[in-house]
Amino acid sequence: MAKILVIAEHSGTALNPSTAKTVACATQIEGAEIDLAVLGASVADVAAEAATLAGVSRVLTVERAENDAAIAAILAPQIVALAADYSHVFGPSTAFGKDLMPRVAALLGVNQISDIMSVDGSHHFKRPIYAGNAIVSVEAPADSIVVATVRTASYHAVENGNNAAIESAAVDVDIPTHTRFVELQTGSSDRPDLQSAAKVVSGGRALGSKENFELIYKLADQLGAAVGSSRAAVDAGYVPPETQVGQTGQIIAPDLYIAIGISGAIQHITGIKDAGTIVAINKDEEAPIFEVADIGLVGDLFSLVPELTDGLS
Amino acid sequence: MEKIVVGLKRVVDYNVRVQVKSDGSGVETDGVKMSINPFDEIALEEALRIKERGEATEVIVVSIGPSEAQQQLRTGLAMGADRAILVETESSTDALTVARVFKAIIDRENADLVIFGKQAIDDDNSQTGQMLAAIWGRPQATFASAVSIDGGVAKVTREVDSGLETIEVDLPAVITADLRLNEPRYVKLPDIMKAKKKPLDTMSIAELEVAPAPAVKETEFKPPEGRQRGVMVEDVAGLITALKDKGLV
Fold it and tell me: What topology is assigned to A3-168 in CATH?
């Protein structure tokens, strides 16, 4: 029977929404027993939140001062020690999980399965390659541990309301000192988080300047939406990199995605293809974004977007 | 620091729209333009800049793949790398085996720094750098958008989901390059001529005494389920009505 260890992503005070989606993927493996590992400096609050996730049997906490910032080289040996009792180790396919999980896999002597989008069996999965232009079915070796990241946009978070046991796990391993956290600069934003927002408004190169991006912020604030962007907008310096949506940015699945002045390169589309409703506003009626949009509007964004913002107020 | 090793993967060019073969056995690569993985080009550019600042003495580009990967290595040499190594294999290689091959090369070369792209745009795995750092027992600084070297320490700014994280790592270390680390230089014709004279060694995986890792089998390839084209609305009023009908506003 499968025993799955899910590695929780958290901020030190709250669980990242990616964790409940990773658990959702783990529940797709029939008869699996799922434990959640929370590593941090002081994780009582996070562990209490983790214990509410449906499908989780136990929450294992590993508290030590070195775990304060999530440094892969520090966390990986501790996860390897925990992994001895498990058939699977899953993490989210976010920057946190993409950094950490391959290090865990290599220490365990196995390849990792990246970006699980569907579970076909305990060792059979589907994942996207070539920016989502192809989906490949993969089979992990039956006789070794499965280490994987989960494409969180493919899963809905599990429900709350559980009351799993919380246990402190004793992990006695040497922690390297060769990697040191210096600082984290976050965009000071009161807007919702891009990964978990129900609505996202994204702008592209057609905005033309950082100042003009104000149009996107106003519409986003009117809708209570997060702000996203295309690679072109980030490269042009209109918005910070963490807003980039697509193959090499964030993969998201909001209920509503509004793409403004974004042509819709395949690399961008792969980041939004699981969105509920895609709206596109673009002056070029031939733009590829319209081939995937549920609702399209052709015209000049500089007049349409303010009109839309006003119309919704 | 003396040596920087840079990994260059030969992949289907960024601009090619990849098609799945009708029998589901893979994707069509016959007659398709191949290039250096774009993130690896950024990795190489960063290595060259570190060398040009006088902080390293040699840049070695390494590829694992078919003999045609010599083309990508020659391009790397034309960009400014000092020499190249091709570890030749006709079979597809998994990330952990590739990491083990790099480990063997690093041991031979005594490298101080390894720079990879953060992911290859074919398999989109984003694993090799982290795996190499793991089996090497050295630091990893993934998704780098800024790198500075100060003696035996690299300070690296990383693009993470919540913003920019800065870490310090002791060398030797592995860095993986994100999109905005730099803009790779264009190769000029005289550099292409010069690159033909630079050394390019070829070796096999067996020669490096690398044990292949247990591979994940790829059993079937399919095109993605596409989204359907929706409706076009005439104006903003039409858009608002459509959104209200769906209960989205």
Answer: Rossmann fold (3.40.50)
Architecture per CATH, domain A199-312, reads as 3-Layer(aba) Sandwich (3.40)
CB A59 within 8 A of CB A38: yes
CA dihedral (A226, A231, A237, A243) in degrees, to 10, reads 20
* B96 in reach of chain A (CB within 8 A): yes
Give contacts of A92 with chain B, Cβ < 8 Å: none
What are the residue ranges spanned by the domains of chain B? 3-245
Q: What is the pLDDT of residues B30-88, one digit of tens each?
A: 899 999 999 999 999 999 999 999 999 999 999 999 999 999 999 999 999 999 999 99
CA A244 – CA A241 distance, rounded (Å): 6
Distance from CA of A304 to the nearest CA of B (A): 7
pLDDT along chain B (249 residues), means of 10: 96 93 93 96 98 97 97 98 96 92 97 97 96 98 97 96 95 96 94 96 94 92 90 96 94
Q: Which CATH class is domain B3-245?
A: alpha beta
A242 CB neighbours in chain B (<8 A) are: 159-164
CA distance A8 to B49: 38
CB nearest to B99's CB, from A101, A106, A231: A106
Q: How far is A145 from chain B (nearest CA, A)?
A: 11
Cβ–Cβ gap A307/B236 under 8 Å: yes
> Which residue spans of chain A are classified as CATH 3.40.50.620?
3-168
